[in-house]
Design brief:
Structural class: alpha+beta
Distance between the termini: 61 Å
Number of strands: 12
Helix content: 25-40%
Radius of gyration: 19 Å
Length: 222
């Protein structure tokens, strides 16, 4: 139901199968523009102040288009994430990187894990916008089915080993996501999911540049 406001909930487990949300509301605000990256950084600030922790996993859910060549002429076009249905605004690829940079400053260290529960966002170009502010980057490089991430399965597996490293959490989500759509809780659908260790990002860029040089040097009969 659209209540015309923004509510932050402290998610708690209940003992019913009801579709009613029983978790308590811990913050209520007028409508927030989810297409403004400042809303994301404000939420991180509020979360750190009210729920301080040693580690942070920031997930952005919404439609995503990643970043790619937009048309046959080769014109570059940065696609985006987090469209707000009321304002029509969205968070650009560059703004997402800025938000993670600000989040790292608020937290006091790199964001342990950033993830997009959205289509097409697991691209090297998107990850590159936050290479200095995020330790592990997770998401799908293809379209995501409507059910998205299997949070119940993933969080249950995480709870079994709460001391997992960021890399292990990313690997667990990747496994649980693909399992969910490979005869699991969401049936059978073709999906992809990746977890990037961002400490190796610069090596990836160097390798891609080397590959580009090699490809440009090939002759037509090679």
């Amino acid at each position: 139901e659209d209540n015309g406001d923004h509510r932050s909930l402290l998610i708690q487990k209940d003992n019913t199968n009801s579709q009613n949300v029983t978790s308590p509301v811990v913050q209520s605000l007028p409508q927030v523009d989810m297409g403004d990256y400042h809303s994301l950084t404000s939420f991180v600030q509020w979360g750190v102040q009210n729920y301080p922790a040693k580690h942070y996993f920031i997930a952005v859910w919404n439609h995503g288009n990643g970043w790619h060549l937009q048309n046959a002429t080769g014109d570059m076009h940065a696609n985006d994430i987090s469209w707000d249905d009321n304002s029509g605004n969205h968070i650009t690829t560059e703004q997402l990187g800025v938000a993670m940079g600000e989040a790292a400053k608020i937290i006091g260290h790199k964001v342990d894990i950033y993830g997009s529960d959205a289509c097409l966002m697991a691209m090297a170009e998107v990850a590159g916008e936050m290479k200095d502010s995020v330790s592990v980057f997770v998401g799908s490089q293809e379209t995501e089915p409507g059910d998205g991430w299997p949070y119940a399965t993933f969080l249950a597996d995480w709870a079994k080993n709460p001391a997992m490293t960021a890399q292990q959490v990313g690997a667990t989500l990747s496994k649980d996501y693909t399992n969910a759509y490979s005869g699991g809780i969401y049936g059978n659908q073709d999906v992809t999911f990746s977890a990037f260790d961002m400490s190796h990002y610069d090596s990836l860029v160097a390798a891609v540049k080397t590959l580009a040089v090699e490809l440009k040097g090939l002759t037509g009969d090679q």
